[in-house]
Amino acid sequence: MNGGDAAAAAATPSHRRLPDFLQSVNLKYVKLGYHYLITHLLTLLLLPLMAVIVLEAGRTDPDDLRQLWLHLQYNLVSVLVLSAVLVFGATVYVLTRPRPVYLVDFACYKPPDKLKVRFDEFLHHSKLCGFSDDCLEFQRKILERSGLSEETYVPEAMHLIPPEPTMANARAEAESVMFGALDKLFKFTGVKPKDVGVLVVNCSLFNPTPSLSAMIVNKYKLRGNIKSFNLGGMGCSAGVIAVDLARDMLQVHRNTYAVVVSTENITQNWYFGNRKSMLIPNCLFRVGGAAVLLSNRGADRRRAKYALKHVVRTHKGADNKAFNCVYQEQDDEGKTGVSLSKDLMAIAGGALKTNITTLGPLVLPFSEQLLFFATLVAKKLFNAKIKPYIPDFKLAFEHFCIHAGGRAVIDELEKNLQLQPVHVEASRMTLHRFGNTSSSSIWYELAYMEAKGRVRRGHRIWQIAFGSGFKCNSAVWHALRNVNPSPESPWEDCIDRYPVELDMIALEESPDFAAANSALYSVITLVCTSWIIRYIYGP
C-alpha cells in the first residue's frame, strides 16, 4: 500500500471497512463441512464391503456350504440372533437413509410483450410520477450501467399513468406469474394437481390474506390434506430455502410430489420517493417467477432431469446487526422502501464466508481438499509463511447459477472464484434479458444452459443466492441425463441471439452515484467477495 492508499484507508471510518479477514480462519465451518462429508463417506464405504462379501460367497465350494448348514442346524440360537441383528440393521438403514429427491422439471414465466419497458419509456413514466430531475438523471445512469436490456418486463400497473399500485393489481400480477408458470409445468410433465402432496411458495414482499399458497390451492383444486407453506420476507435467497423445505417434507412423506413456486411482486413495492438508495430496485427488479416439480418416487428417476445432492444454508439472524442490516421502512416523506445498514458489507462477508467454507468439503475433489487442508494446518500449527492454496471450484461444478442481482455481483464472483466467461454467461444473459427477478433468477439461468444444450449427464450445477436476514444459501444438483430444454422455455424465441456483447461502461465515481450504488443490496453483497475468498483461502 502506498502513502496515498494508506491515508485514504486511515480516513475511512472503521464501520465502512471490511474486517481484516487475513488474520485468522474460523475452523468451525470447515469442520462442519467435513462432518457432512464423513457422514456420507461412511455409507459409501459399506457398499464395497458388501460387494466383497457377495463375491467371496460366490466362490465358496458347495460342500463347504452344506457343512456350514449342518453346523448351523445345531446352533439354532446363534442363527436366530444373527438373523435378528441383520433384520434390525437392514430396517434401521432403510428407515434412516435419505430418500433421493429428483427434479422432474421446472417452468419459468415469460410475461407478454406488452409489459416490456424501454429505457426512455421508463424515464418518461418516472418523470410523470414526480421524481426530481436529479433522481431522474440518477436512474438514467443506473439503467445504462445495469447490464439490463430494453426487453425486460414491469407489471401492468406500472405502465399506467399514473401507476395504480393497488391490492387488486398486485394480486393480478401474482396470479399471472404463478399460474402462468404452473400451467406450463403441469402441461408438459403430465402431473395432475391432485397428485401434489407438498406446496411451497416464496415471495418476499407481497403476503396477502388468503396467502399466495392458498391462491394456488384454490386455482388448481389441490387436495385437502396437502402440506402447504408460504415463505415471506426472506429476500432473493428464498428460492433455495423453499427447495430445502420441500426436500425435508419429501423425506417424511413417501411416494409424492412437491411443487416449489418462487416469485416476487413489484406492483405494491415500487418506490415513489426521492431517496437515491431506495430508487435502485426500481431500475433493476423485474417481473418473473418459476415453478419447480420435485419427486421422491423411484419411478420418476428415469424421466427426471436432476437429483438434489446438497443444500447448505447460512443464517446470521441471531446477530442484531445482521438482522437489521436490510430493513424495510418508510423514508422521511412516509414512502416505503428498503434501508441498508452501514454494517452490511461486513455482515454479508461473514455469511458468504461461512457458506463457502461449509460447502467446500462436500463438493471439492479430494485432491483439492487435501492441498487446502494441508496448507491450512501448516499455517495454524507451524505459523509457516506458505502461500495458501486456492481450491478450484471449476473442478467441483460444470455450471454456475449465480443470482443475477446486478452486474457487479457477477463480475466479482467471476473474478474471485477464477471462473471463465462461459461460467457466468447464463447469469449475465439472464440479467440482460429478464433483469433481476429475485429468487427465481437462478431458474432462468438454468433454463438458459438447457436451451444452449450444455447440460450433459453427470454434470454438477451450483445455485447460490443471498438475502435479507442475513442469509446465504447454496444448492447443488446432479444431472441424471443429457438435458434438453423444457417445452415453452423462456429462451426459445431468443436463444439464437445470445450471448450478446455487453457494453462495459465504467461506473461514474461521483459522490452521489457511489454512495447510492454502494447501498444496493445485491451489489454490495458481492463486492466484498474478494475479501471473503482471501479470508478463507488466503491472499
From TrEMBL:
Belongs to the thiolase-like superfamily. Chalcone/stilbene synthases family. Its main location: membrane. It comes from the Eukaryota. It is found in: Membrane. The keyword Transmembrane applies. The chain crosses the membrane at residues 34-55, 76-95. SUPFAM superfamilies: Thiolase-like. Residues 93-381 form the FAE domain. It holds the Pfam family ACP_syn_III_C. One of its GO terms (cellular component) is membrane. GO terms for molecular function: fatty acid elongase activity. InterPro entries: 3-ktacl-CoA_syn, ACP_syn_III_C, FAE1_typ3_polyketide_synth, Thiolase-like. This is 3-ketoacyl-CoA synthase. Keywords: Acyltransferase, Membrane, Transferase, Transmembrane, Transmembrane helix. GO terms for biological process: fatty acid biosynthetic process. Its EC number is 2.3.1.-. It comes from Oryza rufipogon. Residues 398-477 form the Beta-ketoacyl-[acyl-carrier-protein] synthase III C-terminal domain.
